[in-house]
Amino acid sequence: MTNDYLSSTFAALADPTRRAILARLASGEAPVTELAKPFDMSMPAISKHLKVLERAGLIARSREAQWRPCRIEAGRLKEVAEWLEHYRRFWEASFDRLDDYLRELKTKDNPKEKKHVRKQSKN
Amino acid sequence: MTNDYLSSTFAALADPTRRAILARLASGEAPVTELAKPFDMSMPAISKHLKVLERAGLIARSREAQWRPCRIEAGRLKEVAEWLEHYRRFWEASFDRLDDYLRELKTKDNPKEKKHVRKQSKN
DNA sequence: TGGTTACATAACCTCTGGGTTAAATATACT
DNA sequence: AGTATATTTAACCCAGAGGTTATGTAACCA
Asked: Which end of chain A is more exposed for a tag (fewer CB within 10 A), N or C?
């Protein structure tokens, strides 16, 4: 499942340095040295971050002489967006409407339940 | 900045158990024992996962007798969605149009550049 | 050929994350 | 008061993440 990828994608995004690198790459390809400039961090550290991003499928690296330009690879970000869509109603609906939704779900599934709804196939 | 929260939110979402818990909670409040049922895992492990989700602001817990019902708290998910929006064009635009975009960005910012664009204030 | 630049790999350290079992706490039930 | 149920806390273990310095490799330059 796409499930497997989600864990490594989220893990990769959980680091501010890596998110900053992605933000930089959003304005175009860049070689490693340039990506490293904003950070007070050794090159190997940056290299590791890039490897994490690459393994997570968030960036791709090519070769150009002695440079290794990096660019954003958007597929996994799209998967994250799709995963998030399942929860959109939680922040878009007004709270009242959300309550309505849950109450409806509850009574439809298990009319006698009072405390909490029972497990039901998710998603 | 919202930046601080993003790291803990993404970190919380990087675990499949925790995402499954969120998926379950998407269909309504549930107490801890019920959340634990699908998993071959000790209660303290679940308890820790819930604490991570709570600290990340992804769930909230209340009290009801000896139960601690959990529910989704959508604010942080919304922040993730907003963060993602900055990258939407990367998976939505056709590749040609993306190339156009980057080329335009590049020439506008630094007309003489050939290999790669220079650093520029991000986002 | 030798030096410089760009980057990766190796070896190491430390801290945290995710799991365990055992014990504590809180509420309800009789 | 005494037991059962629900949940958290404590103490521990181990693997992995994120950083370091030192070293290796590859391409360009003179």
From this structure: N
